[in-house]
Amino acid sequence: MLTVTIRHAIDPTSAKAMDTETLRANFQVADMFAAGEIRLTYSHYDRMIVGGAVPAVDGLILDEVKECGTASILDRREMGVLNIGDPATVTADGTDHNVGRGDMLYLQMGSGPVAFQAPGRYYIVSAPAHAQHPTRLITIEEAGSVKMGAAETANDRTIYQFIHPDVMESCQLVMGYTMFHGGSVWNTMPAHLHDRRMEAYLYFDLDEPNRVFHFMGRPEETRHIVMKNEEGVLSPPWSIHCGAGTGSYTFCWAMAGDNVDYKDVEMVAMEDLR
Question: What pLDDT does 57 receive?
Fold first, then answer.
């Protein structure tokens, strides 16, 4: 079963006037993971698609997505697949890929239908592509890793880079995840903006009843969205994107836009946040 939800782009002036439920309806991506289903959200921010696939015994096949306007989703797109469940197999373009928990699979444009097998639990991100770059399975051991922050500032973390210029080539999709250590809970603070790229987060490995308070909005007009385990959030180019949890968690970040320069950001000074 395939379900697709559309999210239109929202400007910062409109977002400023939104109440809690309206913010959640436009930016939060909840209920992505349902047994026996593929649930996608098609965003008008750089036409990024995010979603989840939870195959049953017979597996799931992702092929035509009407909103893309092509016979198959990957006819003019690339895709990143993160397995947050047990090791399992993803098949595309006639090739089986054994994707372990925490591994990421990059699928090139033109890969055809994608088959997801149990017992995997898959987070899917897709962006438009203009060229073919080789399909690649990147394990956590092969990912780039950058240690940042400190326990004293509650942001001791390792950033794992998978679909990233330092690891492999892609068209516009950049994707990885950040894991926190020893009670640290703050992500992406000090905050930043990148006007040339949108970003999406997936928060996972968050125990009940813990929550992450995700901050968004213009630096001078911030808002927050309360997130639980395995929920996502869309971050427009004009918005900050950072958060703090009431317990440990991991979050997957994915970007699409004009470039793949991970450092193409505008930092926001702490004193400018309101």
Answer: 87
Domains of the chain, with CATH numbers? Answer: 2-272 (2.60.120.10)
pLDDT at 100: 98
Residue 76 — very low, low, confident or very high, per pLDDT cuts 50/70/90? very high
Q: Residue 100 and residue 139: Cα distance in Å, rounded?
A: 8
**How, if at all, do strands 231-235 and 197-204 pair?**
antiparallel
CB-count exposure of residue 20 (10 Å: 0-12, 13-18, 19+): exposed
Tell me the DSSP string of 35-51. BTEEEEEEESSTT-EEE
Q: Are 208 and 6 in contact (CB under 8 A)?
A: no
**Residues 6 or more apart in contact with residue 161 via CB below 8 angstroms:** 143, 144, 145, 146, 167, 176, 262
Determine the 3-state secondary structure of 1 from DSSP.
coil
Tell me, what's the pLDDT at 221?
95
Question: Tokens at residue 4, please?
Answer: 């697709």
Give the span between the Cα atoms of 44 and 171, in whole angstroms.
Answer: 18
Burial track 33-45 (b if 16+ CB lie within 10 A, e otherwise): beeebbbbbbbeb
Summarised one tens digit per residue, pLDDT across range 100-145 is 999 999 999 999 999 999 999 999 999 999 999 999 999 999 999 9
H or E stretch covering 219 = none
- Rounded to two decimals, the pTM is 0.97
Cα distance between residue 100 and residue 88, in whole Å: 6
